[in-house]
Amino acid sequence: MKIDVTSIGGDAAGSLELNEAIFGLEPRQDLIARMIRWQLAKRQAGTHKSLGRAEINRTGKKMYKQKGTGGARHGSARVPQFRGGGKAMGPVVRSHAHDLPKKVRALALRHALSAKARDGAIIVWENAELAEPKTKALRASFEKAALTNALIIDGAQVQDNFAKAARSIPQIDVLPVQGVNVYDIIRREKLVLTKAAIDALEARFK
Question: So what's the architecture of 2-43+98-204 in CATH?
Answer without folding.
Answer: 3-Layer(aba) Sandwich (3.40)
